[in-house]
Amino acid sequence: WEESLTLLRHIFHLNSQGRTGDVKVYYIPGNHDVGYAIDLLHKPQVLSRYESEFGTRNHQFTIGTVDFIAIDAQTIDGSSGNRTTLRTWDFVHNVSRGPHSKVLLTHIPLYRPDWTHCGPYRYSPVINQRIRRASKDNEIAYQNYISEESSHRLLSLIKPALVLSGRDHDQCTITHMTINGPIKERTVGTVSWQQGNLYPSFMLMSISNSAYSNASTQDTLVSTELCFLPQQTFIYMWYAILFVMTFLALLFWPASGIDISYPLNAFLRGRSGFGIGSKEKSEDDNCEYQMVWDAEGSMHLVRIPLMPSSMGSKEISSLERGQALMRPNRRQTNQDQQDMSLEVDLGVDVDSGSSTRLMPSRQRQRQSRTIAKMVIQRFIRTVKMSLFVTVVNVTLYMMLLFKDCID
Predict the structure, then answer these.
(1) Which of 25, 326, 354, 394 has a Cα at 20 to 30 A from 297?
(2) Cα–Cα dist 402/312, whole Å
(3) What are phi and psi of 264, to 5 degrees?
(4) How many secondary structure helices (H) and strands (E) does the chain include?
(5) Who contacts 29 (Cβ-Cβ below 8 Å, separation ≥6)?
(6) Residue 281 has what pLDDT?
(7) Residue 366: partners with Cβ closer than 8 Å, 6 or more residues away
C-alpha cells in the first residue's frame, strides 16, 4: 500500500499535509482502502492505517453555506453488533440536525432497482445489485450498492440536496423519490481509462454563497458539471495510423527522390502568363518548347519558332507542339538505367523497335537477382528508418509521461 500511496500523492501533487498547493483535499474511504465490513472485523489495523494517513473516516466540512457529509459506506450495512457500523450511524444522526443544506458523499452508491437507466453519458452496461455476506459472521463481504433499507434511512435523516457517489467507474445520474421530495444522485466516473471506462471524466461543482447570491432553491445552491477527459485509446489508434503511413512512405519513396522543378516551373509560367494580352499569346502560338539536357544532366526549356509550312509531311508528323526532344549528349541517369534493366528483364530489345526476342536464361537470372537485391535493400532501409522513428517517438513519449517521476 505504500506504493499506491506514493502514486496517489504523485498524481495529485499532494504535500506532506495532504494539500495540493494551498488547496485543501478531502478524502472518503473506499472498498480498496479499508475493505468491506468483514475485512474490518478481522483486520481492525486497516482502519488505523487509513486514519493515520487521511484522517477520520466519517467527517463533515462546510464550504459556503453547504455542509458536506462524508461517510464510510463500507460499514453502513454491517451487523447490528458491529462497533464500526454503530459509530457510523451515530455520526449520521449527529450531523443530520444542522440548519444548512447538505451534500452526501459516499463511495458506494445508494440503492437503485435493477436495470435502472443511468442517463446518456454512461458507456458501460448497467450493473445490478449484488450483496454477499459471510456465512459465519453475517457481515458484508461484497456489495455494489448500499442496501435499500439503509439508503432510505440515510436520505430521510440527512435530507441531502445532492448525493455524490463512486465505486461504479462510470457515470450515472438517477433521482430518488422520498417523502421530502426528489433527491438527485450523481455517480462520478473514473479518471482513468484503464479502469474499464473508455470515456474517463471528473465532475466540477459550483456552490453558491448566500452572502453573494440570493439562491433560494437547492438546485441553484449546488450545481455540477460533468467534464470528460481525452479518449486515450483514440490517441493510440492515431499513433498506429501515422506509423503505418510513415512505413508505406519509406517503402515506396523513390531512391533518387522526387524532382518538382519541372511542375513548379510550369506552374510559375502559368501564373506569370495569366492575364497577358493577345500579343504574347500570338507569340506562343508561333513557337514551341523543347526540353534539352546538357552534359551534366540538367534540363533546360528552349523556345524554338515553328518550322515553315513547306516542311514535308514526314517531318511535320515527327514534330508536334510541345514535344520534348532528348539530345544525344545528355548524360544517362540512374532512372534510365533502371528502365533499361526492366525492359531487358521483360525480354524486350530496345534497339529493334517493336520486335522482341527472348533473352538467354542466364541473363534473365542475373537480372532477376539484381531486382531482388534492390527490393531487399529497399526493405532493409525502410525497416531501419521505421525503427529509428519508433525509438525516437517512444523515448520522447516515455520521457513526457514520467517526467515528474524522473525528478
Answers:
(1) 354
(2) 79
(3) -70, -40
(4) 14, 14
(5) 50, 54, 57, 72, 74, 107
(6) 46
(7) none
Instruction: State how far the Cα of 36 lies from the Cα of 260, in Å rounded to an integer.
Output: 71
Q: Which residue type, as a one-letter code, is found at position 204?
A: L
Whether residue 102 contacts residue 65, with contact meaning beta carbons closer than 8 Å, is answered with no
Tell me, what's the pLDDT at 177?
A: 92
Other beta carbons within 10 Å of 34: 22
Q: Which residues, in sequence order, are CB contacts of 138 under 8 Å at separation 6+?
A: 79
| SS3 category, 206 | strand
Query: How many CB atoms sit inside 10 A of residue 281's CB?
Result: 10
For the chain, percent helix, then strand, then coil, each to nearest 5?
A: 40, 20, 40
Cα atoms found within 13 Å of the Cα of residue 148, Cβ hemisphere only: 7
> Which residue, among 296, 304, 337, 295, has the nearest Cα to 323 in the 3D structure?
304
Contacts of 67 (CB under 8 A, 6+ apart): 60, 61, 95, 98, 100, 101, 102, 103
Q: Which pTM value belongs to this model?
A: 0.63
Bridge partners, 66 (sequence order): 63, 101
Closest C-alpha among 91, 119, 121 to residue 106: 91
Q: What is the DSSP letter of 41?
A: H
10-residue averages of pLDDT along the chain (407 residues): 83 79 88 87 87 91 91 90 90 88 94 92 87 84 92 94 91 91 92 82 83 51 86 82 83 68 72 48 60 65 63 46 44 46 42 48 75 82 82 79 55
CB neighbours (10 Å) of residue 96? 15
Exposure string for 113-152, b = 16+ CB within 10 A, e = fewer = eeeeebeeebebeebebeeebbeebebbbebebbbeebbb
